[in-house]
Amino acid sequence: MNLNHINIVVQDVDKAVNLFTKHLGFSLIVNRNSKMAVLENGNNFVLVIWGQELNHKENTPEYPENFHIGFYQKDEQEVWDIYEKLKPEADVLFENEPKKIRNTFGFYFFFEKLMIEISVSPFKDNIA
Question: How many CA atoms lie within 13 A of 117 on its CB side?
Fold first, then answer.
């Protein structure tokens, strides 16, 4: 069994689509009036971006403490490359620069209140 999709809730669907297509390897399948969008990443994984207004709420959605989504990279240089590409984006807030995190290397940033991790896979040496 595989995880095939996830739905994240955001306040601004178009800004989220921009982030995920411009920087995080997704392609847009459909954007439904800036209220909901469906993206895919070419690895049989679909990301649904759900606008908070569809929940009949206007506030920025809250996520539980430490909840985050993550994107593994093959090495530290790829982590730095993504960090440098993201730095000029007005819609992201960095927690820190790339650095050693536990047994890997990476950084966290926020889009709205969604925490996103970019790091080297801590399991890469264990993959055959």
Answer: 17
This prediction has a pTM of 0.91
Residue-wise pLDDT for 2-58, tens only, equals: 899 999 999 999 999 999 999 999 999 999 999 999 999 989 999 999 999 998 888
Closest CA to 104 of 78, 68, 67: 78
DSSP string, the chain: ----EEEEEES-HHHHHHHHHHTSS-EEEEEETTTEEEEE-SSS-EEEEEEGGGGT--SPPP--TT-EEEEEESSHHHHHHHHHHHTT-TTEEES-SSEEETTEEEEEEEETTEEEEEEE-TTGGG--
